[in-house]
Amino acid sequence: MGPPTLDKIRALQRNPRNIRNLCILAHVDHGKTTLADCLVATNGIISSRLAGKLRYLDSREDEQSRGITMKSSAISLHYSNGDQEYLLNLIDSPGHVDFSSEVSTAVRLCDGAVVIVDAVEGVCPQVNAVTGTLFTSKVLEEQAEREEEEELGGDQARDWSSRPEEADDSLLYFSPDQGNVVFASSVFRFAHIYNQRMGIKAEVLLRTLWGDFYLDAKAKKIMKGAQAKGKKPLFVQLVLDNIWSLYDAVVTRRDKEKVEKVVTSLGIKVLARDLRHSDPKVLLSAVCSQWLPVSQAVLLMVCEKLPSPLDMAAERVEKLMSVGARRFDSLPEHTQELKRAFLRCSSRENEPLIIFVSKMFAVDAAALPQNRQRPLSQEEMAHRRELARQRHADRMAAGCVDPPARPDTGDSAAENVTVTYLPQASVSLPAKMESVTPEEEEEQQTFVAFARVYSGVAKKGQRVFVLGPKYDPGQGLSTLPEGVSASDCVSAVPHLSCCSMERLYLLMGRELEELEEVPAGNVLGIGGLEDSVLKSATLSTSPACPPFTALNFEATPIVRVAIEPKHPSEMPKLVRGMRLLNQADPCAEVLIQETGEHVLVTAGEVHLQRCLDDLRDRFAKIEFSASKPIIPFRETVVRPPKVDMVNEDLGKQQKVAIIHKARWSDTLNVDSSGLVTLTTPNRLATVSVRASPLPPEVTGLLERSTELIRTLEQINMSLREGRSLDISPRTLEAIAGFKVQLESLLQGRKWRDVVEHVWAFGPRRYGPNILLNRVAGYQRPSLWQCLGGGVQAGEAAATRDLDNSIVSGFQLATLSGPMCEEPLMGVCFSVEKWDIQSSVPPQHQEEASTSRGTPADCKGTGSGATRPEATEHGPIPAGLRPEAAADCYGPVSGQLIAAMKEACRHAFQAQPQRLMAAMYTCEIMTTADVLGRVYGVLGKREGRVLHEEMKEGTDMFIIKAVLPVAESFGFADEFRKRTSGLASPQLVFSHWEVISSDPYWVPTTEEEYLHFGEKADSANQSLKYMNAVRRRKGLYVEEKIVEHAEKQRTLGKNK
Predict the structure, then answer these.
(1) pLDDT above 90 coverage of the chain, percent
(2) What is the largest CA-CA distance in the chain?
(3) Which of 305, 495, 713, 778 could make an SS bond with 863 (beta carbons 3.0 to 4.6 A apart)?
(4) What is the DSSP pairing of strand 769-773 with strand 827-836?
């Protein structure tokens, strides 16, 4: 079969019923790209003999050298099944965990996936990470909920316990008898083979090939109960036995006669060179590729089992279009009408255009279709031949003239002189000089958007709206005039801009083909969006369209390096290159720290190396130096230990040490219980703060609920500003469930009614730290007011500004802790006292009270415990007092922020401090031969084995361990070297773990002095990490520069 023509693909794009958008998902090295090669070979794009060797969709040089896929690549394939013709938009995705963001960008554009599972290694972590969220009880609960809503009324009782079990969930599972599993071929193909050979109906074989059935040779019937009767199952009899016998004849015994009989009986043709080849696997591959072609089985399965764009579920559309916490039915009517456009997936002229861009990828400008050298037609070659003859005749007529003396007589003469006499170097010199300009360098890399059309027809040169992630369609519709188009200026609407789709491309793996228009339901590339789209965006011709929900990345960017050019004059090139890299990689982040360092944040070591290579070779094209990886840490506090370092009873010595650590001044006071009281320098504000550790379960819950806490903060901000917000019931249920979980985890006398007194979360208002309001008599708006309750808005307005100053100080304190300026984690700060005093002297207050009618005594507390005295006209609200307003917006507000920050830091230091290290989870599959070496490498790098088990039926061991991120660099290379390549680890960020050792520990008891000595200079892992971070940040490091110093002497003399 020859490769499909561009006209053929254009025709297939107009029929969404026969379009399949799919991606290939699997663990690393399980054969995704090999399968993609087999599918590409069916269209004649590559030779079937090169399938698995060429790796056609791995177009990068480092992909070919490493042998792994690093980016998602798409290609359009044509498949015919009877009289039906299908267009398959295939996306090959990476399997390495560092590039799971590329998997997310591919999955968003697809309607289905082909999951590959290795027969030896089985289901691995990456497969679970990618597909696990789809096949969970949540899917069953949502399905049961939909059926319940259809069957029952709103007032009827619902038995949620029984509905998931009663729901028909057979379509959610993989089973060969459903036709959605392929064993290097499909059950359908075997059923077709044995239908012709044995005369058994194909329908019967399809039902019985997989299951507890066996073939009775005497009766020539398929019987049930193979396991009970000790018979081989039908699948083993008809499928596996034949494959094993072929493998035994070709690879094990190399029986040429039997191979020839098998080839003849199967009716296939094998080349003579394959029969004579010294490697038996070549012959085995040649026989199996014709007998059991995996490509045909997969293509047939995809066309029959995967949905078309017309079959998109309504629930998926609502999830894509739901903006933040708002429910779908609260969106404007014009926005809700777009749901029907999604479901129709129509390409008519009056349909709104809706496109989602999942990522931007860089392409060399020379590889674009408009810049590619195309073959000349016969007419063009004849025309150029005639021009060359004419020029040759003119030169012969003019005679031979000395080149330097020849005058410039016009354009044609100048052209002749340049071509005939000037050396090649002089011709190419201006081009080389121009190529070094920044504009030319930037133009060498062009960005193409990886997108899909969900509705309407995308046309070349069409102008569309670019909808930012914070765009509100309700605000856009109320601001813009009715009937506005993307051609009009819409600069007045926030998070809304316009752009032109300059070029449309058909993605064909390594090549791009230019298109004039693309109908709905197809995957495409769009050129000309690099100035309007950073990483992903939603494009539409209707301002009523909401932005799609953001992509969810499995890998967390945690590895960061600081980059600087070797020549300072090349800093602009580095900045421009990092900007392009940030746009080209969906997971990479580029930051500029407060110190001025340019920092690159990546998901792992392999991802970091790829980003550095791209920055050096493609985007910046300069030499630069990268620092050692910057390791993130967290700071926390723990409960005071009851025993010392030698497991002796500590008694009261730890508390004495804490008191002596505290710094005393006229504005700072620390009592024996750890309560810190701090007064601002102008003596007008006083805060008392106490720090305590949160239970680990609460910290984990806060870390998992980051998005929910952020949504809660947005809701509270809208309520404080008086804006109405329609919140979806599902969001309210999630917030209520989050509150119930917090209450269940915070039990005991110490945490009584804590949830109702939560003031804020931090840092950045959604982190894993809590600020509590324990100020006596201060009733502020509840954090959970969206669930009902809370105080009146008038009370909130009276203390809102000073209230915000306390929260801001807490946010700053949790963002950078006192140990090494790293964020805090798992710490609860309780504000137990907060007093505010007016800055106006008493005599001025009296004058103000007589002239304005304000109270003479303005002393009060921000907690509201002391109310301003009433005048004859009644009490004056605090928010209307000019003195209070001047204090709030004057020096008191800023000093209160600084005082709150310092109070939190001192309260933190009054408790036992610990560092928290980022931890990788590491799953290793290895044989018993190198098991000891695996343990050796893990122990050397502070790793800890969680459990080890042997895989049934094999000699493979599966080891699950945790490893600090700080010790992970070079781990994979050392692992492969020590195990001779028999084991390769997969590192996935797992959690934060407290380092047990105290970085500030010094011996305090007699037993500790006897055990560790007076210096106690044994290795302290926590202190080593802390000093390394402080040294990198330029902070003071307390360490001895010179130890065991001796007088210098000349070694040549014996003295």
Answers:
(1) 21
(2) 119
(3) 778
(4) parallel
